[in-house]
Amino acid sequence: MKRNSVSLPGLMFVLGIHGALLYFLFKQELIPPPEQLATLLVNFIPSPKPKEEAKPEPPPPAPKPQPVKKPQSRQLVAEAPVISKSEPVAPPPPPLPQPEAEPEPKPAPIAEAPPQMSPGPVTLSAELSVACPELNAPAYPALSRRLGEEGKLVLRVELDESGRVKVAQVVDSSGFKRLDEAAMVAVKTWRCNPPQRNGQPVRAIALQPFNFVLQGD
To answer: Which of 51, 93, 129, 193 has a CA 20 to 30 Å removed from the CA of 84?
Structure first.
């Protein structure tokens, strides 16, 4: 502990002496200021000489193209033969006749297609009632009941493409006009399924019989 306390003041004393000595020298201008010292150091350092860049050698001159000698053109002059006045001059030959152009053949007329005839009606082999899902039985006339009129009749019926009855006529009469008319009125209300041809509905003809019979009480 005593050695540390004695050495510290001694060290401080030595540092103070050195500081006073540096101050004295600085005042006497024996030591230059920092600016001059930096300038002196800069002046003493020689600057490096720049290296000289190697200059590229110029390319050798290109050989001059030799002029190509053009061949001398020779003009060919056709000399016309000298015809004496005494020699007869032959007239130029007449022009050849040009062949006449053949007329273009006319196109053949296009034959018009004949108008398509509407296909005729198909005749049904069975009775008309077989192909009709909607049908009503004819009403028995009241006067025919009182008079006791009975009979059988056959109608010829023609259907259109929609299945409706277009024409109905009596083929075999019952013998009583009232019964025949009652059958025609009833059949015209029927709705039927028309036959088809190539997937399309067509008209049809069928026969339909009717039988008027009085039933006793």
So the answer is: 93
Beta strand residue intervals within the chain, DSSP E:
122-123, 151-159, 165-172, 196-197, 200-201, 204-212
Give which of 134, 211, 207 is closest to 169, Cα–Cα: 207
In a domain? residue 65: no
Maximum mean pLDDT: which of 25-39, 96-110, 199-213? 199-213
In a domain, residue 115? The reply is no
Domain that holds residue 165: 122-212
**Joined tokens for residue 182:** 């009652």
Encode pLDDT of 67-103 as tens digits.
666 555 444 444 444 555 555 555 666 666 676 666 6
Q: How far is CA 149 from CA 53, 86, 117, 153, in A?
A: 146, 135, 45, 13
User: Could you tell me where the DSSP H helices lie in 28-85?
Assistant: 34-44
* CATH number for the domain that contains residue 153: 3.30.2420.10
Tell me: the pLDDT tens digits for 47-72? 455 555 556 666 666 666 666 665 55
Burial 11-24 (b: 16+ CB within 10 A, else e): eeeeeeeeeeeeee
Q: What is the count of structural domains for the chain? A: 2
